[in-house]
Protein backbone atom coordinates (compact mmCIF):
# COMPACT_ATOMS: atom_id res chain seq x y z
CA UNK A 1 0.00 0.00 0.00
CA UNK A 2 1.40 3.41 -0.97
CA UNK A 3 0.51 6.62 0.84
CA UNK A 4 1.07 9.56 -1.53
CA UNK A 5 -1.21 11.91 0.45
CA UNK A 6 -0.73 12.88 4.11
CA UNK A 7 -2.23 10.21 6.37
CA UNK A 8 -2.11 9.38 10.03
CA UNK A 9 -0.83 5.96 11.00
CA UNK A 10 -0.75 4.66 14.54
CA UNK A 11 1.67 2.12 15.98
CA UNK A 12 0.76 -0.27 18.75
CA UNK A 13 1.75 -3.75 19.97
CA UNK A 14 0.17 -6.72 18.23
CA UNK A 15 0.04 -10.36 19.18
CA UNK A 16 2.32 -12.97 17.63
CA UNK A 17 -0.74 -14.44 15.88
CA UNK A 18 -1.67 -11.07 14.36
CA UNK A 19 1.93 -10.51 13.31
CA UNK A 20 2.22 -13.93 11.67
CA UNK A 21 -1.10 -13.46 9.87
CA UNK A 22 0.23 -10.21 8.40
CA UNK A 23 3.46 -11.89 7.30
CA UNK A 24 1.40 -14.48 5.45
CA UNK A 25 -0.34 -11.76 3.42
CA UNK A 26 2.94 -10.65 1.88
CA UNK A 27 5.12 -12.37 -0.69
CA UNK A 28 7.86 -12.54 1.88
CA UNK A 29 9.49 -10.75 4.76
CA UNK A 30 12.85 -11.42 6.34
CA UNK A 31 12.88 -14.36 8.76
CA UNK A 32 14.44 -11.85 11.17
CA UNK A 33 11.07 -10.07 11.15
CA UNK A 34 8.93 -13.05 12.10
CA UNK A 35 7.48 -13.47 15.61
CA UNK A 36 9.42 -16.71 16.10
CA UNK A 37 12.74 -14.92 15.70
CA UNK A 38 12.02 -12.91 18.82
CA UNK A 39 11.76 -16.19 20.72
CA UNK A 40 15.10 -17.32 19.28
CA UNK A 41 16.90 -14.20 20.51
CA UNK A 42 16.36 -14.97 24.17
CA UNK A 43 18.96 -12.46 25.37
CA UNK A 44 16.84 -9.56 24.07
CA UNK A 45 13.29 -8.55 24.92
CA UNK A 46 11.08 -8.67 21.83
CA UNK A 47 7.77 -7.17 20.79
CA UNK A 48 5.66 -7.22 17.65
CA UNK A 49 4.38 -3.85 16.47
CA UNK A 50 1.66 -3.05 13.95
CA UNK A 51 0.89 0.04 11.89
CA UNK A 52 -2.83 0.86 11.57
CA UNK A 53 -4.44 3.29 9.15
CA UNK A 54 -7.45 5.53 9.86
CA UNK A 55 -9.77 2.71 8.91
CA UNK A 56 -8.29 0.40 11.54
CA UNK A 57 -6.55 -1.85 9.00
CA UNK A 58 -3.20 -3.43 9.84
CA UNK A 59 -0.94 -2.13 7.02
CA UNK A 60 2.56 -2.79 8.38
CA UNK A 61 4.35 -4.87 11.01
CA UNK A 62 7.74 -5.26 12.58
CA UNK A 63 9.64 -7.28 15.16
CA UNK A 64 11.56 -5.12 17.63
CA UNK A 65 14.40 -6.52 19.71
CA UNK A 66 15.18 -4.41 22.76
CA UNK A 67 18.82 -4.43 23.87
CA UNK A 68 19.38 -2.95 27.35
CA UNK A 69 22.10 -0.39 28.03
CA UNK A 70 24.80 -1.69 30.41
CA UNK A 71 24.14 -0.28 33.90
CA UNK A 72 21.05 1.56 32.57
CA UNK A 73 18.72 -1.38 31.97
CA UNK A 74 15.57 0.71 31.72
CA UNK A 75 16.84 2.19 28.43
CA UNK A 76 17.13 0.03 25.32
CA UNK A 77 18.35 0.05 21.76
CA UNK A 78 15.28 -0.86 19.68
CA UNK A 79 16.48 -3.00 16.78
CA UNK A 80 14.45 -3.98 13.71
CA UNK A 81 16.75 -6.25 11.68
CA UNK A 82 15.93 -6.23 7.95
CA UNK A 83 12.70 -4.44 8.67
CA UNK A 84 10.09 -3.33 9.35
CA UNK A 85 7.63 -4.65 6.75
CA UNK A 86 6.14 -1.35 5.59
CA UNK A 87 5.80 0.57 2.33
CA UNK A 88 9.26 2.02 1.71
CA UNK A 89 8.46 3.55 -1.69
CA UNK A 90 6.80 6.78 -0.56
CA UNK A 91 6.85 9.08 2.44
CA UNK A 92 8.70 7.61 5.39
CA UNK A 93 7.70 10.12 8.05
CA UNK A 94 4.16 8.73 8.23
CA UNK A 95 5.64 5.32 9.06
CA UNK A 96 8.74 6.10 11.10
CA UNK A 97 7.37 9.06 13.05
CA UNK A 98 4.79 6.99 14.98
CA UNK A 99 7.40 4.25 15.45
CA UNK A 100 9.78 6.71 17.10
CA UNK A 101 7.02 8.06 19.35
CA UNK A 102 6.01 4.61 20.51
CA UNK A 103 9.52 3.33 21.14
CA UNK A 104 10.70 6.45 22.96
CA UNK A 105 7.71 6.15 25.28
CA UNK A 106 8.73 2.54 25.92
CA UNK A 107 12.25 3.59 27.01
CA UNK A 108 14.25 3.29 23.80
CA UNK A 109 17.26 5.60 23.57
CA UNK A 110 17.69 4.86 19.84
CA UNK A 111 16.16 2.92 16.96
CA UNK A 112 18.26 0.81 14.62
CA UNK A 113 16.66 -0.59 11.50
CA UNK A 114 17.68 -2.10 8.18
CA UNK A 115 15.25 -1.33 5.35
CA UNK A 116 14.77 -4.44 3.14
CA UNK A 117 15.34 -2.25 0.08
CA UNK A 118 17.99 -2.68 -2.60
CA UNK A 119 20.11 0.14 -3.94
CA UNK A 120 22.29 -1.67 -6.53
CA UNK A 121 22.81 -5.07 -8.16
CA UNK A 122 25.71 -6.52 -10.16
CA UNK A 123 25.58 -9.67 -12.28
CA UNK A 124 27.91 -12.61 -11.73
CA UNK A 125 29.64 -11.77 -15.01
CA UNK A 126 30.37 -8.22 -13.87
CA UNK A 127 31.65 -9.49 -10.51
CA UNK A 128 34.03 -11.86 -12.31
CA UNK A 129 35.28 -9.05 -14.54
CA UNK A 130 35.78 -6.81 -11.51
CA UNK A 131 37.93 -9.40 -9.73
CA UNK A 132 40.09 -9.73 -12.84
CA UNK A 133 40.47 -5.94 -13.18
CA UNK A 134 43.32 -4.66 -10.99
CA UNK A 135 41.81 -1.19 -11.09
CA UNK A 136 38.65 -2.35 -9.32
CA UNK A 137 38.79 -2.82 -5.56
CA UNK A 138 35.16 -2.91 -4.49
CA UNK A 139 31.73 -3.62 -5.87
CA UNK A 140 30.97 0.08 -5.64
CA UNK A 141 33.84 0.76 -8.07
CA UNK A 142 32.25 -1.54 -10.62
CA UNK A 143 30.40 -0.04 -13.58
CA UNK A 144 27.53 -1.77 -15.30
CA UNK A 145 25.39 -2.40 -12.24
CA UNK A 146 21.69 -1.65 -11.91
CA UNK A 147 20.56 1.05 -9.49
CA UNK A 148 17.20 1.01 -7.77
CA UNK A 149 15.57 4.46 -7.44
CA UNK A 150 13.53 3.32 -4.43
CA UNK A 151 16.71 2.48 -2.56
CA UNK A 152 18.29 5.81 -3.45
CA UNK A 153 15.15 7.58 -2.26
CA UNK A 154 15.08 5.74 1.06
CA UNK A 155 18.75 6.54 1.68
CA UNK A 156 18.18 10.23 1.03
CA UNK A 157 15.03 10.49 3.11
CA UNK A 158 16.59 8.71 6.09
CA UNK A 159 19.61 11.00 6.00
CA UNK A 160 17.44 14.12 5.69
CA UNK A 161 15.36 12.98 8.69
CA UNK A 162 18.43 12.70 10.93
CA UNK A 163 19.07 8.96 10.73
CA UNK A 164 22.74 7.95 10.92
CA UNK A 165 24.23 5.24 8.64
CA UNK A 166 25.82 2.35 10.54
CA UNK A 167 27.13 0.10 7.76
CA UNK A 168 30.94 0.04 7.42
CA UNK A 169 32.71 0.42 4.07
CA UNK A 170 32.90 -3.33 3.48
CA UNK A 171 29.24 -3.72 4.47
CA UNK A 172 30.03 -6.43 7.02
CA UNK A 173 29.66 -5.01 10.51
CA UNK A 174 28.19 -6.24 13.77
CA UNK A 175 24.63 -6.18 12.43
CA UNK A 176 23.18 -7.59 9.24
CA UNK A 177 25.32 -7.41 6.08
CA UNK A 178 24.65 -4.60 3.62
CA UNK A 179 25.94 -6.68 0.68
CA UNK A 180 24.46 -10.08 -0.10
CA UNK A 181 24.55 -12.61 -2.93
CA UNK A 182 21.22 -13.74 -4.35
CA UNK A 183 20.15 -16.25 -6.98
CA UNK A 184 16.88 -15.36 -8.74
CA UNK A 185 14.62 -18.41 -9.20
CA UNK A 186 11.38 -17.01 -10.60
CA UNK A 187 10.50 -18.41 -14.01
CA UNK A 188 13.55 -20.66 -14.14
CA UNK A 189 14.06 -24.44 -14.31
CA UNK A 190 16.78 -26.62 -12.82
CA UNK A 191 18.43 -26.76 -16.25
CA UNK A 192 18.35 -22.95 -16.45
CA UNK A 193 20.05 -22.71 -13.07
CA UNK A 194 22.73 -25.23 -13.98
CA UNK A 195 23.48 -23.37 -17.22
CA UNK A 196 23.84 -20.16 -15.20
CA UNK A 197 26.54 -21.66 -12.96
CA UNK A 198 30.18 -21.39 -13.86
CA UNK A 199 32.18 -24.34 -15.13
CA UNK A 200 33.81 -25.02 -11.75
CA UNK A 201 30.44 -25.28 -9.98
CA UNK A 202 29.04 -27.65 -12.59
CA UNK A 203 32.19 -29.75 -12.42
CA UNK A 204 32.00 -29.91 -8.63
CA UNK A 205 28.37 -31.01 -8.73
CA UNK A 206 29.24 -33.78 -11.18
CA UNK A 207 32.15 -34.78 -8.92
CA UNK A 208 29.86 -35.01 -5.86
CA UNK A 209 27.38 -37.15 -7.78
CA UNK A 210 30.12 -39.42 -9.13
CA UNK A 211 31.60 -39.88 -5.66
CA UNK A 212 28.19 -40.87 -4.31
CA UNK A 213 27.61 -37.94 -1.96
CA UNK A 214 24.12 -38.23 -0.49
CA UNK A 215 22.23 -35.21 0.84
CA UNK A 216 19.30 -35.59 3.22
CA UNK A 217 16.98 -32.86 4.48
CA UNK A 218 14.46 -32.83 7.31
CA UNK A 219 11.95 -30.30 8.61
CA UNK A 220 11.79 -32.12 11.95
CA UNK A 221 15.39 -32.48 13.04
CA UNK A 222 16.48 -35.30 15.34
CA UNK A 223 18.69 -34.30 18.25
CA UNK A 224 21.53 -36.51 17.00
CA UNK A 225 21.43 -34.87 13.55
CA UNK A 226 21.58 -31.41 15.04
CA UNK A 227 24.48 -32.51 17.26
CA UNK A 228 26.28 -33.90 14.19
CA UNK A 229 25.77 -30.57 12.41
CA UNK A 230 27.04 -28.65 15.40
CA UNK A 231 30.16 -30.78 15.79
CA UNK A 232 31.03 -30.13 12.14
CA UNK A 233 30.17 -26.44 12.53
CA UNK A 234 32.55 -26.11 15.50
CA UNK A 235 35.25 -27.84 13.43
CA UNK A 236 34.62 -25.32 10.65
CA UNK A 237 34.82 -22.42 13.11
CA UNK A 238 38.18 -23.60 14.40
CA UNK A 239 39.53 -23.95 10.87
CA UNK A 240 38.14 -20.65 9.58
CA UNK A 241 38.71 -18.71 12.82
CA UNK A 242 35.27 -17.49 13.80
CA UNK A 243 33.36 -17.85 17.06
CA UNK A 244 30.68 -20.57 16.84
CA UNK A 245 27.24 -20.36 18.39
CA UNK A 246 26.45 -22.99 21.05
CA UNK A 247 24.31 -26.02 20.35
CA UNK A 248 21.33 -24.79 22.46
CA UNK A 249 21.04 -21.76 20.16
CA UNK A 250 20.40 -24.01 17.17
CA UNK A 251 18.05 -26.23 19.17
CA UNK A 252 15.98 -23.16 20.03
CA UNK A 253 16.14 -21.92 16.46
CA UNK A 254 14.77 -25.19 15.08
CA UNK A 255 12.13 -25.53 17.79
CA UNK A 256 10.75 -22.00 17.43
CA UNK A 257 10.90 -21.60 13.65
CA UNK A 258 9.43 -25.02 12.91
CA UNK A 259 6.65 -24.45 15.46
CA UNK A 260 5.70 -21.23 13.66
CA UNK A 261 5.56 -22.94 10.24
CA UNK A 262 6.59 -26.55 9.50
CA UNK A 263 8.34 -25.55 6.26
CA UNK A 264 10.24 -22.65 7.84
CA UNK A 265 13.58 -24.37 8.55
CA UNK A 266 15.45 -27.44 7.31
CA UNK A 267 18.77 -29.09 8.09
CA UNK A 268 20.74 -30.51 5.15
CA UNK A 269 23.37 -33.17 5.75
CA UNK A 270 25.79 -34.37 3.05
CA UNK A 271 27.43 -37.74 3.66
CA UNK A 272 30.11 -39.64 1.77
CA UNK A 273 30.35 -43.33 2.53
CA UNK A 274 28.45 -42.71 5.74
CA UNK A 275 30.71 -39.87 6.95
CA UNK A 276 29.30 -36.35 7.33
CA UNK A 277 31.27 -34.04 5.02
CA UNK A 278 29.06 -30.95 4.85
CA UNK A 279 25.91 -29.51 6.41
CA UNK A 280 23.76 -26.43 6.03
CA UNK A 281 20.62 -24.77 7.37
CA UNK A 282 17.92 -23.37 5.07
CA UNK A 283 15.21 -20.94 6.24
CA UNK A 284 12.20 -20.00 4.11
CA UNK A 285 9.49 -17.36 4.47
CA UNK A 286 7.05 -17.21 1.57
CA UNK A 287 8.94 -16.82 -1.70
CA UNK A 288 12.37 -16.10 -0.18
CA UNK A 289 14.82 -18.79 0.99
CA UNK A 290 18.02 -18.14 2.93
CA UNK A 291 21.17 -20.21 3.37
CA UNK A 292 21.88 -19.26 6.98
CA UNK A 293 24.62 -21.52 8.39
CA UNK A 294 27.04 -23.96 6.80
CA UNK A 295 29.75 -26.39 7.86
CA UNK A 296 32.25 -28.61 6.05
CA UNK A 297 34.92 -31.13 6.95
CA UNK A 298 38.57 -30.52 6.17
CA UNK A 299 38.92 -34.16 5.17
CA UNK A 300 37.29 -35.38 1.96
CA UNK A 301 36.85 -31.88 0.58
CA UNK A 302 37.51 -33.33 -2.85
CA UNK A 303 34.07 -34.98 -2.89
CA UNK A 304 32.45 -31.50 -2.91
CA UNK A 305 29.86 -31.99 -0.22
CA UNK A 306 29.31 -28.24 0.20
CA UNK A 307 28.38 -27.86 -3.46
CA UNK A 308 26.01 -30.82 -3.18
CA UNK A 309 24.33 -29.24 -0.12
CA UNK A 310 23.87 -25.93 -1.90
CA UNK A 311 22.40 -27.57 -4.99
CA UNK A 312 19.94 -29.56 -2.87
CA UNK A 313 18.81 -26.36 -1.14
CA UNK A 314 18.49 -24.49 -4.43
CA UNK A 315 16.43 -27.29 -5.99
CA UNK A 316 14.13 -27.54 -2.97
CA UNK A 317 13.66 -23.75 -2.91
CA UNK A 318 12.75 -23.80 -6.59
CA UNK A 319 10.29 -26.67 -6.06
CA UNK A 320 8.68 -24.76 -3.17
CA UNK A 321 7.92 -21.81 -5.45
CA UNK A 322 10.58 -19.48 -4.08
CA UNK A 323 11.60 -16.52 -6.21
CA UNK A 324 14.95 -15.89 -4.51
CA UNK A 325 17.62 -18.15 -3.06
CA UNK A 326 19.70 -15.96 -0.76
CA UNK A 327 23.29 -16.94 -0.01
CA UNK A 328 23.46 -14.11 2.53
CA UNK A 329 26.37 -11.86 3.31
CA UNK A 330 29.46 -10.96 1.31
CA UNK A 331 31.96 -8.16 1.75
CA UNK A 332 32.22 -5.55 -0.98
CA UNK A 333 35.82 -6.44 -1.86
CA UNK A 334 36.82 -7.47 -5.39
CA UNK A 335 40.54 -7.22 -4.61
CA UNK A 336 42.09 -10.52 -5.71
CA UNK A 337 44.65 -10.21 -2.86
CA UNK A 338 41.98 -9.80 -0.16
CA UNK A 339 41.27 -13.10 1.68
CA UNK A 340 37.55 -12.24 1.74
CA UNK A 341 37.30 -12.33 -2.06
CA UNK A 342 37.05 -16.12 -1.98
CA UNK A 343 33.60 -15.83 -0.41
CA UNK A 344 32.14 -13.81 -3.27
CA UNK A 345 33.91 -16.01 -5.82
CA UNK A 346 32.28 -19.13 -4.36
CA UNK A 347 28.83 -17.56 -4.31
CA UNK A 348 29.17 -15.92 -7.72
CA UNK A 349 29.84 -19.37 -9.16
CA UNK A 350 26.13 -20.12 -8.73
CA UNK A 351 25.22 -17.36 -11.19
CA UNK A 352 22.89 -14.78 -9.72
CA UNK A 353 23.84 -11.32 -8.56
CA UNK A 354 25.56 -9.32 -5.87
CA UNK A 355 23.16 -6.95 -4.12
CA UNK A 356 23.66 -3.86 -2.02
CA UNK A 357 20.88 -2.89 0.38
CA UNK A 358 20.25 0.45 2.07
CA UNK A 359 22.09 -0.82 5.14
CA UNK A 360 21.43 -0.24 8.82
CA UNK A 361 20.58 3.20 10.21
CA UNK A 362 20.24 4.65 13.71
CA UNK A 363 17.90 7.35 15.00
CA UNK A 364 19.04 8.69 18.40
CA UNK A 365 16.02 9.37 20.63
CA UNK A 366 18.05 10.24 23.73
CA UNK A 367 21.30 11.63 22.27
CA UNK A 368 23.40 11.61 25.47
CA UNK A 369 22.64 7.95 26.18
CA UNK A 370 23.15 7.08 22.52
CA UNK A 371 26.61 8.66 22.51
CA UNK A 372 27.57 6.79 25.69
CA UNK A 373 26.32 3.50 24.23
CA UNK A 374 28.16 4.10 20.95
CA UNK A 375 31.39 4.80 22.84
CA UNK A 376 30.92 1.66 24.94
CA UNK A 377 30.44 -0.49 21.83
CA UNK A 378 33.46 1.04 20.08
CA UNK A 379 35.65 0.26 23.08
CA UNK A 380 34.43 -3.32 22.95
CA UNK A 381 35.47 -3.42 19.30
CA UNK A 382 32.01 -4.31 18.00
Quickly describe the structure.
InterPro entries: Acyl_CoA_acyltransferase (IPR016181), FEMABX (IPR003447), PG_Glycine_Bridge_Synth (IPR050644). It is built from twelve helices and 16 strands.
Describe the protein's architecture and organization.
It is a single chain. This protein has 2 domains: 126 residues, Gcn5-related N-acetyltransferase (GNAT) (Aminopeptidase); 210 residues, Gcn5-related N-acetyltransferase (GNAT) (Aminopeptidase), CATH 3.40.630.30. 36% of the residues lie in helices and 27% in strands. Strand 2 and strand 3 form a beta hairpin. Pfam families: FemAB.
Number of helices: 12
CATH topology of the largest domain, which one? Aminopeptidase
So what's the CATH class of the largest domain? Answer: Alpha Beta
Shape: globular
Number of strands: 16
Q: Major β-sheet, in short? A: 9 strands, mixed
Amino acid sequence: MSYSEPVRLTVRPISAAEHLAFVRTRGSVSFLQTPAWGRVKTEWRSESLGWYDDGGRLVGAGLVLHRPVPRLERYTLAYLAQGPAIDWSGRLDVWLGPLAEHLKARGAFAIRLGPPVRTDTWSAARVKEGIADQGVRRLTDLSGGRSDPVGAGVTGRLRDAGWLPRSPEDGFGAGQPQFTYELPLAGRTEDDLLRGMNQLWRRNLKKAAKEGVEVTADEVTAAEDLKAFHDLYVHTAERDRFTPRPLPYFATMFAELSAEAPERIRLYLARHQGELVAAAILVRVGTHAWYTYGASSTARREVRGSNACQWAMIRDSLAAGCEVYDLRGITSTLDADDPHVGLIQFKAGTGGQAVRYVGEWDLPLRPAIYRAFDLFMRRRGR
